[in-house]
Amino acid sequence: MPWSEILAQPLARRLGLLVLRRGSSGAFLLILAVLAVTAPNFLSPGNIANVFAQSAILGILAFGLTCVVIGGGSNVVAGGLDLSLAANLGLCAAVYSSLNNAGFDTVQAIGLTLLCGLAVGALNGFTVVVLRLPPLLATLASMNLIAGLELVLTQNSVLPTDSALLDTLAMGEWLQVPALAWMLLAVALLLGLLIQHSPYGLRLYAVGEYPEAARAAGLRVGLYVFSSYLIAGLCAGVAAFCSAAYFSGSTTGSGDMLLSVVAIAFLGVVFSRRLVANIPGTLLATLLLGFLINGFQLLNIASFWVNGVQGVLILLVVAMSSALRKEEGGL
Amino acid sequence: MTAPALHLQGISKRFGVTRALDEVDLRVERGSIHGLVGENGAGKSTLIKVLAGIHRADSGTLAIDGQVLRGFGPRQIEALGVHFIHQERLLPGSFTVGEALFFCHELRYGPFLRRRAQDREAARLLREYFALEFPPGALVSELDSAQRQILQITRALLAKPKILVFDEPSVSLVKREVDQLLAIIRGLRDQGLTIVYISHYLQEIESLCDRVTVLRNGRTVAVVDPRSTSTAQVARLMVNRDVGEMYPKTVVTPGEVVLQLKGLGAGLAYRDINLSLRRGEVVGLTGLVGSGAKELLKSLFGLVQPERGSVHLHGQVTRFKSPRDAVRKGIALVPEERRIHGVAPLLSVLENLTLAGLSRFTRACLLNAADEARESDRLIAELGIKTAGHDTAVRHLSGGNQQKVALGKWLGRDCTVYLLDEPSVGIDIGAKVEIYRLISRLARQGAAVLVLSSDLPELIGISDRILVMHRGALAAEFDAGQVDSDRLLACATGAHEGTAPGLCPVRETQHALV
Amino acid sequence: MTTLAATAVSRPLLSRLLRGILPLLIVAIVAFFSVAAPGFLSLGNLSSLVLNNFVLLAIVAIGMTWAVAAGGIDLSVGTAVDFASLAFVVLLNGGYGLVVAIPGALVAGALVGSFNAGLIAGLGITPFLATLGTLFIGTSVQQLLSDGGQPIYIAQPVLPGLTAVTWLGMPLPLWLVLAVATVYGVILARGRLGREILAVGTQVQLARYSGLSIRQISLKVFIASALACAVAGIVLSSTVNAYVPMSGNAFLINAIGAVFMGTTLSRTGRANIPGTLLGVLFINVIANGLLLIGWNFYWQQVATGGLILLVLAFSFASRRQSPSY
């Protein structure tokens, strides 16, 4: 839509635009305020630290997805997407538990687990960059493959395990903040610096948004997309440790997290002026969801509602941002 | 004599069976502005892609400052000081001016970006080079096309280039912006840069270039000095065919009024539009960017909703709620963005031609394939669409033939009003004439045709009368037989009101071949 | 692009070979299993293969084919299956006969489809995210209705083996697949709606500028997709004699895989019903064959995932090769 058409719109619509812009942060604050008033102990430092810790697994996975979406563009069908993240976490957790139980030493077990996550990322990167499959299909297929591998490894059962690392992650505290919360913040900080404040991140945005421009500037576009899948794989590996710590081993059904991860990464988009996926936005979306679930628990609302609320949230946010985009021109 | 700054010799490049470049030579002297002209498909863009290292030539050599290069990619070319200003503004829309300017040469603090410094430095450079101020923190998507163009030039200048290649830089600029661009380019030459300037607007070439290489069908046909060669001669070299019978206009007596607008207005875009279209009439419409002409045309196809006034179709008050509604009421639009709105490149000629009138081929929800084939073969023959058959994908057709498909899909519907938005942009001269013939035939068959164009000679050549819009209002109406480009332009810029044109003139009579 | 197209001109043979890879693979795999697994070609095995696995996935994948052909995707196929199944079971348990239960189930499915269609056509949300939202909400609703996922069994034996009925020697469910496939296939390939779906799926802006109603088309597509799923839901609950919450999601991934495998078979790389059915057959034959040669369920999943990835890779490789469509 050219500027003249925007100007041609009545004041009310321009006002609506402003409301839409501020709406997402406003809604977040509103939800927090309502929960703070209604749910007992909601604002206690212990509870807040708890929410951070419980959000760690989902959040770290969502960071990985955010990187992929940035590098591949935000078109969900043709753009960047990694549906294998949750399955990758499951496999990594299973690999770590097996290695740990088989008596590998700490460094080896950790190294091999992260390597497993990276390998899955590399497989996705290969199918997307070299074979040029649409990411949606490529990662859907690899998700199936990886979930199968996890089943083979665990025979569809829980593999309990215990190690000093997991103990530290599960029980450790520093400044009265649990270790898992620190993990979430640390990964957010690292990726935030990499994606939002380094030339690499800027170039990744360019690759995702306008690959021709990136190519014309001499960037090797494929390499950047590939690297974003590697980051996602690594995130799955890191999240696997958090999951293993949280559940004292590998669990089944980690694939169920996938849709929440997708929801969070796309929710994060609205927390940015440019309406693009970004790490701080994803962190906010993770916490929003974490606070919601926590508030529901405190209010004794059945957990069955959580999915529905997530669904409504995605739809609301996406409808809002697509309206915003329509107002601002382009499709 | 010193070695030329840039010397391409005997460059050949094949794509399958088509020979895109055939022994092309291009010799550019240091410190000069060298023009490269040719029709669409003459091989200009292929040559530039070879130079940029995007395509590899099948044979031939490239020398920069006398040094022959073998096996080079975009990076090496850039390292040698050759930079490109592309036709599409290759800048990501969500980047700030600073980010876009320093993209890939970011200012850093250790491993991190210095965003503030970049924005500050960008503002300083733009002020220094072009005396321009962009709003602080502006995103690329918020800039207009001229500003983006300048951003790209600044970006190229940052790398301290020796040779700058401009690939059709003026396509989406208006006259004032073009003049500004040309002045900037002259300034760059005077600082010692070597410039290659590609355009099919011969007036730009004439006023700017020191030498001109003319390409035709993938060959170098001439190297001329524009000061001693007229644009008409250059045009003849480009097409090598007689372009005399350009505007086949037959005289038609207009019939009854088909479409009438009374006091139509939409927001700030346009207001108080009164106009009527008669059967058998070709009406031209023109106006500057922002004059409201484009929005008016869109309103007639249900893409923009007018807020005031009324639309009368065959004497009845009506409203076009959506494109679908407009199509049902007998309106046809041949849009400006041909490959997005006009044809589907991936679909076949048949699928494109029948799309707007599927109901004619439908029996009990199913399409009659034989009817469809017969009808599209008829249209292909009638419009002279050059295609291997109706199953060929439209992307294999040339621009002119694609435009015929975009027009042809409406022919089976018996539309009463045809809206044509810049119908001849980006198609070569031969196809243009055929499109003009079609327009004239539509009118002869009793349709009302409204042509929006910024190519004023074209408008004068094909229309019966011409409406000029200025700042959202109809400024004047002319009989096409009694007006020239200068008067139309004066009217469109508001010059006759004695006001300084705040908006810029439409691209005026720049086209070479008129 | 020009370079890619150009190199392909000289290699029509290769591209044709690649296009034929899926039928060839199926033949090869069937041959392999009939040698390696003695019982594979037996009538009993084949009919159980077709009845137990093929029917449901095929019907869901047919619905998905329309969504993909229109340039979208339907992640909520499982929700439509479940809701139809729920309505079917609840109505039967409420004492209504099949005459009420079957239309009721179809309506329930269509409601899910309308919800999607409203989000996509009304609010302009991309199909991926819209159907993702529907999937979430559907899951939540089912959990609330079924107390966290408890199955509801069909109380009285009102279904004296609906699935066991045969007609002209062919079991009823197979007739159903045939009917659904014919209707959806003919409309997609030869119908006016099919051409409109193609236009919307290929270039939505052109469709709009040609006077098509994008809203109406996506409305029809997503309701049709959900209706197919509702049929699958009815068959599902008559087979297992129960409504099992969230059981429909199991079809999602294989359905998408089958549809895109089917696009390989098309000269033009378009989604099409016969191709989808072949894709479904491919997935089922592998799972069944692997079972017969003694691989457990877990390895089956690995092998299926790997093979789907392989076929998709070939599919897109062949599309890039083909010079024109």
UniProtKB/TrEMBL annotation, chain A:
<keyword id="KW-0813">Transport</keyword>
<keyword id="KW-0997">Cell inner membrane</keyword>
<feature type="transmembrane region" description="Helical">
    <location>
        <begin position="109"/>
        <end position="131"/>
    </location>
</feature>
<dbReference type="GO" id="GO:0022857">
    <property type="term" value="F:transmembrane transporter activity"/>
</dbReference>
<protein>
    <submittedName>
        <fullName>ABC transporter permease</fullName>
    </submittedName>
</protein>
<feature type="transmembrane region" description="Helical">
    <location>
        <begin position="48"/>
        <end position="69"/>
    </location>
</feature>
<dbReference type="InterPro" id="IPR001851">
    <property type="entry name" value="ABC_transp_permease"/>
</dbReference>
<feature type="transmembrane region" description="Helical">
    <location>
        <begin position="304"/>
        <end position="324"/>
    </location>
</feature>
<keyword id="KW-1133">Transmembrane helix</keyword>
<feature type="transmembrane region" description="Helical">
    <location>
        <begin position="23"/>
        <end position="42"/>
    </location>
</feature>
<comment type="similarity">
    <text>Belongs to the binding-protein-dependent transport system permease family. AraH/RbsC subfamily.</text>
</comment>
<keyword id="KW-0812">Transmembrane</keyword>
<keyword id="KW-0472">Membrane</keyword>
<feature type="transmembrane region" description="Helical">
    <location>
        <begin position="223"/>
        <end position="247"/>
    </location>
</feature>
<keyword id="KW-1003">Cell membrane</keyword>
UniProtKB/TrEMBL annotation, chain B:
<dbReference type="GO" id="GO:0005524">
    <property type="term" value="F:ATP binding"/>
</dbReference>
<keyword id="KW-0067">ATP-binding</keyword>
<feature type="domain" description="ABC transporter">
    <location>
        <begin position="252"/>
        <end position="496"/>
    </location>
</feature>
<dbReference type="InterPro" id="IPR003593">
    <property type="entry name" value="AAA+_ATPase"/>
</dbReference>
<dbReference type="InterPro" id="IPR050107">
    <property type="entry name" value="ABC_carbohydrate_import_ATPase"/>
</dbReference>
<feature type="domain" description="ABC transporter">
    <location>
        <begin position="6"/>
        <end position="242"/>
    </location>
</feature>
<dbReference type="InterPro" id="IPR027417">
    <property type="entry name" value="P-loop_NTPase"/>
</dbReference>
<dbReference type="GO" id="GO:0016887">
    <property type="term" value="F:ATP hydrolysis activity"/>
</dbReference>
<keyword id="KW-0813">Transport</keyword>
<protein>
    <submittedName>
        <fullName>Sugar ABC transporter</fullName>
    </submittedName>
</protein>
<keyword id="KW-0547">Nucleotide-binding</keyword>
<dbReference type="Pfam" id="PF00005">
    <property type="entry name" value="ABC_tran"/>
</dbReference>
<keyword id="KW-0677">Repeat</keyword>
<dbReference type="InterPro" id="IPR003439">
    <property type="entry name" value="ABC_transporter-like_ATP-bd"/>
</dbReference>
<dbReference type="InterPro" id="IPR017871">
    <property type="entry name" value="ABC_transporter-like_CS"/>
</dbReference>
From TrEMBL, chain C:
<protein>
    <submittedName>
        <fullName>Branched-chain amino acid ABC transporter permease</fullName>
    </submittedName>
</protein>
<dbReference type="Pfam" id="PF02653">
    <property type="entry name" value="BPD_transp_2"/>
</dbReference>
<feature type="transmembrane region" description="Helical">
    <location>
        <begin position="53"/>
        <end position="73"/>
    </location>
</feature>
<comment type="similarity">
    <text>Belongs to the binding-protein-dependent transport system permease family. AraH/RbsC subfamily.</text>
</comment>
<dbReference type="GO" id="GO:0022857">
    <property type="term" value="F:transmembrane transporter activity"/>
</dbReference>
<dbReference type="GO" id="GO:0005886">
    <property type="term" value="C:plasma membrane"/>
</dbReference>
<feature type="transmembrane region" description="Helical">
    <location>
        <begin position="273"/>
        <end position="292"/>
    </location>
</feature>
<feature type="transmembrane region" description="Helical">
    <location>
        <begin position="85"/>
        <end position="112"/>
    </location>
</feature>
<dbReference type="InterPro" id="IPR001851">
    <property type="entry name" value="ABC_transp_permease"/>
</dbReference>
<feature type="transmembrane region" description="Helical">
    <location>
        <begin position="119"/>
        <end position="145"/>
    </location>
</feature>
<keyword id="KW-1003">Cell membrane</keyword>
<feature type="transmembrane region" description="Helical">
    <location>
        <begin position="217"/>
        <end position="236"/>
    </location>
</feature>
<keyword id="KW-1133">Transmembrane helix</keyword>
<keyword id="KW-0997">Cell inner membrane</keyword>
<feature type="transmembrane region" description="Helical">
    <location>
        <begin position="20"/>
        <end position="41"/>
    </location>
</feature>
